[in-house]
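User: I'll paste a sequence; please echo it back and then give the predicted structure.

Assistant: Echoing your sequence first, then the prediction.
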Amino acid sequence: MSSILIDDLSVDERTFECSVRTSSDLERFFTDEPFQASYDVPIADVPDGILAIPVLAHVCPVAWANGADVYVDEVDATFARALEDVEASLCSMYDFLEGGDLYARRTVEPDPEPDGERGLLFTGGVDSTCSYVRHRDESPTLIGIRGWTITPDAADDDKWAALRERVSGFADDRDCDAAFVESNMLSFLDHPMLLAHYKRHVDGGWYSSVGHGLGLLGLCAPLAYARGMADLSVAATHWDGIDLEWGSRPDIDERVRWAGTRCHHDAYELTRQERLDVIADYVRTENPGLQLQTCNDRMDGNCGECEKCYRTAVGLRLAGLEPTDHGYPFTDADYRRLRRSLERGDWVLGQDERHMWADIRERARETEPASPAERAFFEWLDGVELDDLITTAEPPLSDRLLRAGARNAPAPVYNAAYPVWTTAKAGLRLVRSDR
């Protein structure tokens, strides 16, 4: 029987770790690292049933993909019920998920003392900034996380420092608190192997497509318990009417809960352009110098040249703001560069981006262009077939062969060959990017 065992949970003042042991058929999906998470508040008095939530939030989707059961000494009873609800949502979304059961020696029902504090996962991008603006009267604690887009590796120390500075500065300027969480939540999983097995079933990566709603919210459970947070929110990426398979949706995030805390999927009723409208109103009434951070390539500012930077700059223009005032080097000449890059397929775009450009197009149809360059771009966008901008080609044969080899290799063979496969794949990507 396929199984995952959460064991040897230990905690010091601000950090906890635990081991994850699996049946032999699941070994390939985990590295030799124990699961670890660190918080900027003391967690020594947090019950073990709450401390188990971050690791359960990350291993359970892997278990459900393999029909495996998960075993843990102690779990918060409210979260155990939440896992059943999230499992039902994910299994209804993805046919390849089989589900599984959670077994605990003890289910506990702690009696926390929430003080009404509200938490908000925050990066400084459009979605999380909109959520802050909507809830600013509640002075939410802004939470920055290291472990997904910013890895625990030393190579990402500068990125993490930049995020901490940005979140702390934003919070200080608005008289609210900032909090930070660091974890090896993805490096303790063998993410390349998860991709090898499941990439063909999902539109993006494993974490973005399956795990990040439950994972990011669950990671914050010890922090929320220690601080007495009654509510914890994550900003929506998509909006009502977009039915994409994605790891963070209302039918997932709204079901995540544990003793004393309920989680929320915020601003799902607003499109991305409408979220920019909310931000624009805030800029005009309260914060004319607001800076956004959305870049795909940098954490210490916006490059102004990636698809997301261009898309955000155009959205700001449509909301009546000048992009250069809010962190985006953008001029009328960029409309031509943007069109050329979209036509040439310079970026890998998925259904996410298709819906966002469709949202921009709808707003552009209602907006008088401010310049000839803007008019020319909007006229082109109005007539283009957006599906033609989406990357629909299969991965190169070399990638497919590597993934097939990883899926089918016995675990000992995979463990020995994995470094070679990783090097080979990196080399192939390097060659392709140089063309």
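Residues 3-117+122-266 form one domain. Confidence is low (pLDDT under 50) at residues 393-398, 400-404, 416-435.
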